[in-house]
Amino acid sequence: MLRFMDANCMIGPKMKPVQGVPDTAEELCQVMDRCGIDQAIVCYSVAKDGDITIGNQLLHGAISGNDRLLPQWIVMPNSFREFYSPVELLSQMKKHNVKTVRMYPQITNFSLQPYAIGKLMDALAECRVPVMMDMAQVSADEIYAFCKNYPEVKLIICYPGYRNGRLFDALLRACPNFYIDSSNYCAHNGVADVCRSFGAKRMVFGSGIPAGSATSAVSLIRYADISEEEKQLIASGNILSMLEEVRL
Amino acid sequence: MIYEKILEGQPLEDIFVFDCHGHIHPDPKFNTPDCDGDGLLKKMDRLGVNGMALSSVIAFYCDVNFGNEDLLQTVKAHPGRLYGYFTLSPYTACDPEKYLADGTGFVGVKIHASVNKTVIDDPRYMPSLEIADQKNMAVLLHTWSADDVRRTAKLAGQFPNASFIVAHSAMLGCRDACVEVCRQYENIYCDTALSTSFEGTIEYMVNKIGADRLLYGSDCAFFDCSQTFGKIGLANISDGDKIKIYGENARRIFKL
Fold first, then answer.
1. CA distance to partner chain B, nearest, from residue A81 (Å)
2. Which ipTM did the prediction report?
3. How far apart are alpha carbons B146 and B148 in whole angstroms?
C-alpha cells in the first residue's frame, strides 16, 4: 500500500467557507483517513490572506498535538523590519520545527530578484529548506530566473495546472532544482509523462486543499501508468528525502 | 467494495462504468498526449471504464466537418466502447441527420457555446436539438457560469424528450444554479468533469439533487480520467449511489 505525505495543503478559516472543505486539523485528518494519506505539510490561511506573522503563529495552535501534520510557514523578505531577518527566521523555524516554506510574491508584493530576496534565499539554501510557490504567483520566466539565481534552493511549484505541460517540460529540462506538485497536474497521462521524461524524482504529491481535493489527487497517482516504486517516490519518498536534508 | 478498490488503485471490473464526457483530438493550447481512440481505450481499461462518449475538439474549435467525420471513424473502429456526440456549429453547415442516424454510434449532441462565441440557446442550434428530442438523445452542454446553466432550463422545457447534461456542474460558481435547474426539470443531469474541485463536491451534489441526476464525466483527454473517477469512488456516499453515477444513469440516458 502506498504511503502518502501531502506537501501542498492549507487549513484555517476562509472569508467564505465551502461545505466539505476541511478548515481544521481534525477535519483535514478525516479527509486524509478517507484518502489513505498518512501525513501532511500544512500552512495556515491567515498567513496568506491576513498577516504572515500572526498566521504562522496561529498555525501551531491549530495543529498542536497532532503528529500527522507538519507546520509550514509562509515567508517574505524583511522589508522595513516587518518580518524576521533571515537569521531570526531560521532560528524561529528551528524552534517551531518548520522545515519548508511557501511564498506568495504576488499577494505580498515583492520581487523574486536577488536584490529583494537574495539574503533570504541564501539563508534557506544554507539550511536546505525547500521553497514552494503557487503557479498562479509566478510566470515560467520567473521560475527559470529563480532556479538559476538560487541553484541550491529546491523550488516546488504548487497547483501547477493541466495546461502548463509545455512550460514544465522546458523548465524541468533546464532547472535541476525545479519540482512540481502533483495536485492538479491532471493532464491526460501527465504524471506518467513527467516520469518517462524526467524520472519520478521531480514530482511531489499534493492534495491542493483547500482549492483541490485529496480524493482526486491520490487517484491521479494510484492510477498513473508508472511503477509502484515511482508512485511511492511521488506519494511521499521525494518530499521525505527533502525534509531529511534540512539542517536548521 | 468500490471504496477499497479505488484506494488500492484497482480497476472497477464488477460494475458498469460509462464516461459521458470525453474528447478526441488535441487542444492547441496545451499538450494532450494519447488523445486518439487507442490512447483513450488504454486508460479506460486501466480504470475499468466500459464506455466513453466523445466529442471532437477540432469540431468545436474550427472544423466541424472534419472533426465530426474523424470522430465517426474513431467510433466505428471501436464499437461498443467509444461513442460520439455530434458537435454543432452555429456558422458552418454539417449534416446532423447523417451522424445522428441509427447505427452510427453517435448518442447525442455536443454544444460548446462559449467557444462558438454565442449562447447555449442560440436559435441556430435548434434544428439539431429537435432531432435529439425526436430521438430521445442526450445533449452535452459546456457550461461555465450560472447564466449558462439557467439557459439550459429553457432548452429542457422546450425539448422535454432530450436529456440535457450540464458539464462541469460542480464548479462553485454555478453548482447552486445546477441544483436549481435540476429541481425544475427532470431531463437535466449534471456531470462531474472539473480540473480542480473542492473536497466534498460529489457529496454536495448527491445531497442536493440525488445520485440519479449525476453522471461520471472526466473531460478526458483534457484531463486524466482517473481524478474524477477516484473522486466518486472515495466520496462519502453509498455504493448504490456510486454505481448510479459511474454508469447506471448513463446506461438509461444513452440507452446502452
1. 37
2. 0.94
3. 5
